[in-house]
Amino acid sequence: MEGESLEIKHSSGGWVSPDVWAHESLYEEVSGHKVMIWHAPREPNDELQLNFVWPEAGTYKVKINKVLTKEGGKFQIYLNEELGEMLDFSSGEVENATEKQKLGTVQLKPGPQQLRLQWAGEKGEGGEMRLDYLKFAKID
After folding, report:
1. Which of 136, 139, 138, 90 is nearest to 115 (CA)?
2. Collapsing DSSP states into helix, strand and coil, what is residue 35?
3. Is 50 within 8 Å of 118 (Cβ atoms)?
4. Of 116, 112, 106, nearest to 137 (Cα)?
């Protein structure tokens, strides 16, 4: 599930767009990568809600490919109110990098799904989130 294909349902503020090009040096092939980006206002309980439609019921292992930046922040992620993993989009001193992270296992039914990201940083920390893709691997 590509980040740019997610539907923006709600944002508590900041700037959000599915139409941002990722730096091609992050990838082995030049292919016109876009990412979902959110510059959160960096206030408690700031959140972004994204929707997508899933075709098949089952239990899935979920991974995320994040684009890390110097302005990257910490976010809690929920898929249909499950998972609750902490994501860190900060690259430290590196300009840009990608990182895959396991999110856990979820049960999905066919139809609409909700992905919710909540800013979880401290005052003065970064507020940028760049989501490249979510990978779902069916296990049953």
Report:
1. 136
2. strand
3. no
4. 106
Distance CA 3, CA 64 (A): 10
- 44-98, pLDDT tens digit by residue? 889 999 999 999 999 999 999 999 999 999 999 999 988 888 999 998 877 778 8
> Measured between alpha carbons, how far is 129 from 116 in angstroms, rounded to an integer?
12
In the block, which residue shows the tokens 């989130």? Answer: 129
Structure tokens at 122: 């401290």
* Exposed / middle / buried, residue 82 (Cβ in 10 Å: 0-12, 13-18, 19+): middle
Cα separation, 71 vs 23, whole angstroms: 15
Q: How many Cα atoms sit within 13 Å of 85 on the Cβ side?
A: 15
Classify residue 33 by its DSSP letter: -
